[in-house]
């Protein structure tokens, strides 16, 4: 859908979201309606370059008018938010996970987390692009690509990747379309695109936010979370999203655990705090930015403890087995709840659909992970049960918890990811390294990333990782760091980093 936005089955580049038709005479727009129309206008301006949105909700202006008429007040009242397109929203838009197989998946349901955001007064602006099927179809995938939404591009350099799978959520916030978006993560799909697009991302504790009516990968690791411009905004969004859901057993403690995450934010919260430095998960071109960030943490009173090594082999050896088994079970259960307009009712049906539509679905990469997941034995398989127990202990009790206790620290910090790599349809994702995000993902523990600097003009993030239910702590630490860091450079929508004014001359031959 290059160069246009899909709006309720039609296309438009008109900022009003009504296909360019003449506006009706009406009373002056209220503040919420104005905010929505500004977001639509910004989308019309930048979407032809970045493809971060699959569809704008044609009811957004109507939602805004209802809110304006209500006179409600609150931190999120009247704020437009983008929802990743594997999360259901009531209304005319389908929930596609980026796949043509779900192009008619209009369920008429709000995911519970969406219902909570509506209750907080937010406007559902539309659905964000994503890595198709949340990047689980193939190990050779290109992050940020979906058959429906095309290739999302990084606002800092348009030939660079946005990471996945919450690529559109990250790019849209970075590009200034919205300041609040929702992503989902199984392993890195909130924190990686947040880091690479220069925004804040929080993967909560698994079980703090409902997963009901979200296209699944892993019941052990899936969660939704906020992606925002600032830490305070992430705290506000999490406060609204979090809570127990009877349909999601993992959330039974959520109501007891959740707090008002924004209320306690303190710019002095680093003072006297012992924080572990994950040297075992640093490097990959981020050293100068990371060194500067550590100096800033010290200057704000943090006590930094070096942690040089950690053996994560047990995680890598077992996580994949868990994901493949849980994908089949979860996908079959989800598809069984979709409307009759969705012809694919099982993972096997999706595989057959992709084969029948190979030109549009599999022209860039295949579906070997879908096929492998289809061959698994399900939740009663002994090998799966063992892999799940081993990997969760290795990342949780024997991982994060052990590191915190052994080093007498309250949280861990490290670079989130390397800077963005180039979009490459030949070789797929070419990631030159990675931080310690898998520890938190496999353990089901929270992970916050905050922009920490630029590498050749491309953003990289600083990760804060803590024990289960430590979102309040991590947000406080990240907030104090963010306040000390100051404003972060905005994207310039360069065609490439190589075309930047301070780089391009260096690439020219010396004239003699």
TrEMBL record:
Residue ranges occupied by any Amidase domain in the UniProt entry: 36-475
NCBIfam families documented for this protein: PRK08137.1
Entry keyword Hydrolase: yes
Alphabetical keyword list: Hydrolase
Broadest EC class assigned to this enzyme: hydrolase
Lineage: Bacteria, Pseudomonadati, Pseudomonadota, Alphaproteobacteria, Sphingomonadales
InterPro entries named in the record: Amidase_dom, AS_sf
Superkingdom: Bacteria
Name of the protein: Amidase
GO MF annotation: an example: amidase activity
Family annotation (Pfam families): Amidase
E.C. numbers: 3.5.1.4
Native organism: Sphingomonas rhizophila
């Amino acid at each position: 859908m290059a160069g246009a936005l899909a709006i309720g089955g039609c296309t438009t580049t008109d900022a009003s979201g009504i296909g360019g038709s003449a506006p009706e005479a009406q009373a002056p727009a209220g503040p919420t309606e104005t905010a929505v129309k500004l977001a639509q206008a910004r989308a019309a301006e930048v979407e032809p370059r970045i493809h971060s949105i699959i569809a704008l909700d044609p009811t957004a202006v109507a939602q805004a008018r209802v809110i304006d008429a209500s006179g409600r007040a609150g931190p999120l009242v009247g704020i437009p938010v983008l929802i990743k397109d594997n999360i259901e929203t009531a209304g005319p838009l389908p929930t596609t996970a980026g796949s043509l197989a779900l192009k008619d998946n209009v369920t008429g349901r709000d995911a519970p987390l969406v219902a909570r955001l509506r209750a907080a007064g937010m406007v559902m602006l539309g659905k964000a692009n994503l890595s198709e099927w949340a990047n689980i179809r193939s190990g050779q995938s290109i992050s940020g690509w979906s058959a429906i939404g095309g290739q999302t591009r990084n606002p800092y350099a348009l030939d660079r990747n946005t990471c996945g799978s919450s690529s559109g959520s990250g790019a849209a916030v970075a590009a200034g379309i919205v300041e609040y978006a929702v992503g989902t993560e199984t392993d890195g799909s909130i924190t990686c695109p947040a880091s690479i697009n220069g925004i804040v991302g929080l993967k909560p504790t698994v079980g703090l936010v409902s997963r009901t009516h979200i296209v699944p990968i892993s019941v052990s690791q899936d969660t939704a979370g906020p992606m925002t411009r600032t830490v305070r905004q992430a705290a506000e969004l999490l406060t609204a999203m979090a809570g127990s859901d009877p349909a999601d057993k993992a959330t039974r403690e959520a109501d007891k655990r959740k707090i008002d995450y924004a209320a306690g934010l303190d710019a002095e919260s680093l003072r006297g705090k012992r924080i572990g430095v994950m040297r075992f998960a640093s490097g990959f071109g981020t050293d100068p930015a990371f060194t500067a960030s550590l100096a800033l943490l010290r200057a704000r009173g943090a006590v930094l403890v070096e942690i040089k090594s950690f053996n994560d082999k047990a995680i890598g050896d077992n996580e994949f087995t868990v994901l493949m088994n849980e994908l089949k079970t979860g996908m079959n259960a989800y598809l069984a709840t979709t409307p009759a307009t969705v012809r694919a009712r099982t993972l096997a049906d999706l595989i057959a659909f992709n084969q029948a539509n190979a030109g549009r679905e599999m022209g860039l990469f295949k579906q070997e992970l879908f096929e492998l997941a289809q061959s698994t034995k399900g939740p009663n398989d002994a090998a799966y049960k063992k892999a799940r127990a081993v990997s969760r202990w290795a990342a949780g009790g024997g991982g994060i918890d052990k590191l915190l206790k052994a080093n007498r620290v309250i949280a861990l910090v490290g670079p989130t990811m390397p800077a963005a790599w180039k979009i490459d349809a030949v070789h797929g994702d070419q990631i030159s390294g990675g931080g310690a995000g898998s520890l938190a993902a496999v353990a089901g523990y929270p992970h916050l990333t905050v922009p920490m600097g630029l590498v050749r003009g491309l953003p990289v993030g600083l990760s804060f990782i803590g024990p289960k239910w430590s979102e309040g702590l991590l947000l406080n630490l990240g907030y104090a760091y963010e306040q000390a860091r100051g404003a972060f450079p905005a994207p310039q929508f360069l065609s490439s980093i190589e075309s930047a004014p301070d780089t391009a001359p260096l690439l020219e031959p010396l004239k003699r």
